[in-house]
Design brief:
- This protein has five helices and six strands, in the order ββββββααααα.
- The protein has two domains: 3-61; 75-179, Nucleotidyltransferases  domain 2 (Four Helix Bundle (Hemerythrin (Met), subunit A)), CATH 1.20.120.
- The chain is elongated and about 55 Å long.
- The longest helix has 19 residues, at 133-151.
- By secondary structure, the protein is α+β, with helices and mostly antiparallel strands.
- The protein binds zinc ion.
- The site of zinc ion has 8 residues, from loops.
């Protein structure tokens, strides 16, 4: 029996067979004891994401502040990022990671950074000094994690998402700095 607190209204929920729970990984063959999902609160109806490993709650996706997106950032990237946070809150880590990647790619394009694929866009952001070395590293890390999730069927841990959200905010904000926008 595992308990989880609703991150919206703080009601306690009990997770067991028959709970209003959506498991995103019904059978992760590499780790059958791992469950990632979203528990629907009976009091307020909101979802709270969770990751359980061998009956131990290892991660809960709460509402946290990962930074504020600069309002200069074009709307598409901001919208994609907002969806990434929603996916995380609802315990859908692969979708959250994918939305982070999509928002970074859109922000690079909107900043006028070209490249035939995401790898090359990030590389060009480095050579043109639009992103510093740390930001380039974060962008490549996000790219690699989502590549493995999308194309190689690997599953992203819920606990890996907060750092990816923070990194995405940092990258988007850097790319939207006024001095960085193309003429
Ligand atoms: Zn609730």
């Amino acid at each position: 029996m595992t308990y989880i607190k609703c991150t919206t209204c703080n009601s306690m929920m009990e997770i067991n067979v028959g709970s209003q729970v959506h498991y995103n990984i019904p059978s992760d063959k590499s780790n059958p004891k791992k469950l990632i999902g979203s528990a629907m609160c009976r009091s307020c109806g909101a979802g709270t994401g969770f990751e359980i490993n061998d009956n131990v709650m290892v991660s809960v996706s709460g509402k946290s502040n990962y930074g504020t997106i600069n309002p200069n950032q074009p709307e598409v990237a901001r919208t994609l990022y907002a969806e990434a946070e929603l996916c995380f809150q609802n315990g859908v880590p692969n979708a959250a990671a994918t939305m982070c990647r999509a928002s970074i790619e859109d922000a690079l394009t909107q900043a006028g950074i070209e490249g035939r694929d995401l790898y090359n866009k990030i590389a060009n952001a480095k050579t043109t000094n639009r992103l510093d070395d740390d930001e380039v590293g974060l962008a490549h890390a996000s790219r690699l994690i989502t590549r493995d999730a999308i194309h190689r069927g690997e599953l992203v841990n819920l606990s890996d998402i907060p750092s990816m959200l923070s990194a995405t905010v940092r990258i988007l904000n850097k790319l939207s700095e006024a001095a960085n926008l193309p003429d």
